[in-house]
Amino acid sequence: MSAKLVAVIGATGTQGGSVVGALLAHGGYSVRAITRDTNSAKAQALKSKGVQVVFGSLTDEASVVKAFEGVYAVFGITVPFTNDSEELQGRNIVDAAKEAKVPLLVCLFDQKSEVDKYARSSGQPTVIIHTGVFMENLIKGHLQRDASDPNRWNLAYPVLRPDVPLPLLCVGGDLGRIVVSIIDHWEDDTWKAKLTKDVLVAAPHLASVNDMISTLKKPVYGLVNDGYLQYPQQTILEELGIKTTSFETYAQEKVLPYLQSNQ
Ligand SMILES: NC(=O)c1ccc[n+]([C@@H]2O[C@H](COP(=O)([O-])OP(=O)(O)OC[C@H]3O[C@@H](n4cnc5c(N)ncnc54)[C@H](OP(=O)(O)O)[C@@H]3O)[C@@H](O)[C@H]2O)c1
């Protein structure tokens, strides 16, 4: 029997890339990457690893239906800050999965609650993951070199008090394994019921800006502001047998080397 095919939206990006990496490491699935540019360097790199690379754009539903043909499971994301609403992108993913009769859609709409509701009411079998805050955000923007003192870094989370605990996930290291584990468990009815009942919260590590600063042991400061973020703690990862990266480990392996190499 041939391996089940898993299609990944955003395969050339952070989250989809993590899922593709975990699928390849698992070895039991065929992988199809969906991209708007099948000739890009990242698309070519995926091809060289044995990944099928096909065209698909979230604003063109017909292209997504075609990209989902023959697929067992889809990992989907929507993309913010473009001219095309995330709600439209999300609805296109759900509608295309339904039309292509995809047995499992695993989605990370990331608090885009209208799409969550749409997926829930569509009849498309869907597992919705909420990741919390990506640890990668530190390197991608929250840590900034001080304008007047190059030896100093600022840690800025503008709408948060520095003592508010944030639910954190190392997306590059952990999201892919979480998604693959969900796909692996899908044909077990007990798991299916559990995974579809509630949003899967995959952000087990809580750390406030103050915690992050003391972990990094760097002369950084938090931008203080009024704000409050509530997030339920992880519910299911332990049961799936997934150990995720702690902030301390991420800080040692990624953030401190980043700060040192940029001194
Ligand atoms: N919770 C958090 O802390 C946090 C942090 C960052 C991001 N996010 C969420 O993560 C998502 C972004 O994921 P990411 O960080 O993996 O993004 P990313 O690294 O910027 O990559 C974006 C991916 O989306 C694909 N893409 C863009 N527009 C597309 C379209 N119209 N049709 C099909 N594919 C398209 C790109 O593929 P091609 O260019 O190859 O087509 C690329 O692979 C968003 O939902 C964002 O809100 C959350």
Walk me through what this model shows.
With 263 residues, this protein is of the alpha/beta class. The protein folds into 2 domains: 4-130, Rossmann fold (3-Layer(aba) Sandwich), CATH 3.40.50.720; 137-167 and 205-231 and 247-261, no CATH class. 41% of the residues lie in helices and 19% in strands. Strand 8 and strand 9 (153-155) form a beta hairpin. The structure holds NADP nicotinamide-adenine-dinucleotide phosphate. NADP nicotinamide-adenine-dinucleotide phosphate (NAP) binds next to helix 1 and strand 7. Residues 4-103, 107-195 form the NmrA-like domain. GO terms for molecular function: oxidoreductase activity. Belongs to the NmrA-type oxidoreductase family.
Q: Which CATH top level class of the largest domain fits? A: Alpha Beta
Query: What is the total number of structural domains?
Result: 2
CATH topology of the largest domain: Rossmann fold
**Number of helices, where a helix is a run of at least 4 consecutive DSSP H or I residues:** 11
Q: How are the strands of the biggest sheet laid out side by side?
A: 3-2-1-4-5-6-11
If you compute it from the alpha carbons, what radius of gyration comes out, rounded to the nearest whole angstrom? 19 Å
Q: What's the helix-strand series?
A: EHEHEHEHEHEEHEEEHHEEHHH
Shape: globular
The average pLDDT score comes to: 86
| Distinct small molecules bound, one entry per kind | NADP nicotinamide-adenine-dinucleotide phosphate
The CATH architecture of the largest domain can be given as 3-Layer(aba) Sandwich
Largest sheet: 7 strands, parallel
Q: Roughly how much helix do the residues carry, as a percent range?
A: 40-55%
Ranges with pLDDT <50 over ≥5 residues?
219-231
Give the class from helix and strand content and strand pairing: alpha/beta
Distance between the termini: 54 Å
Full CATH superfamily name of the largest domain: NAD(P)-binding Rossmann-like Domain
DSSP summary, beta strand count = 12
Query: How much beta, percentage-wise?
Result: 15-25%
InterPro entries: NAD(P)-bd_dom_sf (IPR036291), NmrA-like (IPR008030), NmrA-like_oxidored (IPR051164)
Pfam family, one: NmrA
Keywords: NADP, Oxidoreductase
Protein name: NADP-binding protein
